[in-house]
Design a protein that fits this description.
Layout (H helix, E strand, L loop, with lengths): L7 H13 L5 E7 L11 H5 L4 E6 L6 H15 L2 E4 L11 H8 L1 H9 L7 E7 L5 H9 L17 E5 L3 E5 L11 H10 L9 H15 L1 H7 L9 H12 L10 H13 L11 H10 L13
Parallel strand pairs: 1-2, 1-4, 2-3, 4-6
Antiparallel strand pairs: 5-6
Length: 303
């Protein structure tokens, strides 16, 4: 399975972002805390064109807290970016956002004051991939439902400005992926998190990838969730256990792997396996050293 998804409205959205950028003071890059680098558009540096930028790690409550701290250090040390973990649904960490935006826009505000220009709200553009929580964040900041939300990707189809009191104006944008995933593992992580339309996926392949990762980093979570005596020897054996435990069987008592895979992914995405991260900075550092697109995963994921 080759995962690609770049529908026409995303290409249009990218053009519209470039057109609106001149009106923007601060760019907020919204990433999925469970897979920050895989959920980061590699074209973002070109898209925001040097604007002051803040990285938000959304869905932090669903990610491994220790790994999230590693990612905060990674963005600070390798990209010089301020990074804040948040949870847009519960509001955790969101109250720090206005203050950080004012800090990032301080130079612009100071220039306007020196020129005798009238004070105005800070204009902020929020960028991120589909289903990362942009609309939920805007609704949280606005304290009302101004942006359409949903548990499926690509709910937002058009840009809109939203006023947040007298001090902030937010530009909501549709989720933008990039035309081609150079590393298919990035596509698999995105698919496992729910950022790719399910209709485009082979559930079994995505589930096998996610199971292998969890077997390596979170084996006890699987044992406890599916009430196993021991961890199976392979991802396929683990998927068979999921089928047995969830009653996904066909005639003759054989496992229905596709059904089991879909159920497992839904449990993973909804947080029923606890707070887990699907990638770590060290995974990508291994890749850079070895020069292989598959070097940043445990060996059993490559089988």
């Amino acid at each position: 399975m080759t995962i690609q998804w770049f529908p026409g409205h995303m290409a249009k959205a990218r053009r519209q972002v470039a057109e609106k950028l001149k009106q923007v003071d601060v760019a907020i890059e919204l990433l999925d805390a469970r897979l920050p680098l895989s959920s980061r558009n590699p074209l973002i540096d070109q898209i925001v064109d040097g604007k002051p930028r803040l990285v938000l790690l959304n869905k932090a409550d669903m990610a491994d807290e220790e790994v999230t701290q590693q990612w905060i250090a990674y963005f600070r040390e390798t990209h010089g970016l301020r990074t804040l973990p948040i949870d847009a649904l519960s509001g955790k960490g969101v109250n720090r956002l206005p203050g950080l935006c004012r800090e990032l826009a301080a130079e612009m505000l100071s220039r306007r004051a020196e020129r005798g220009m009238q004070a105005r709200a800070i204009r902020i553009m929020i960028l991120g991939i589909p289903n990362v929580g942009k609309s939920s964040l805007i609704n949280r900041l606005a304290k009302r439902a101004v942006a359409k939300t949903g548990d499926r990707p690509a709910v937002t189809k058009a840009q809109q400005w939203v006023k947040i009191g007298d001090q902030l104006e937010l530009l909501d944008t549709p989720g933008i992926l990039w035309p081609k995933f150079e590393d298919q593992l990035v596509g698999l992580r995105l698919a496992a998190s729910g950022a790719i339309k399910d209709e485009l996926l082979d559930f079994s392949e995505v589930a096998m990838f996610a199971l292998a990762y969890l077997m390596h980093y979170y084996p006890q979570r699987l044992v406890e969730r599916f009430k196993l005596r021991d961890l199976p020897a392979s991802p396929l054996a683990m998927l068979e256990q999921v089928a047995q435990k969830r009653g996904c069987l066909v005639a003759g008592g054989e496992a229905d792997y596709d059904k089991a895979a879909e159920i497992f992914l839904r449990e993973l995405r909804s947080g029923k396996l606890g707070a887990v991260s699907l990638e770590r900075p060290i995974d990508w550092q291994r890749e850079e050293k070895v020069g292989s697109p598959h070097a940043h995963i445990p060996a059993d994921l490559r089988e």
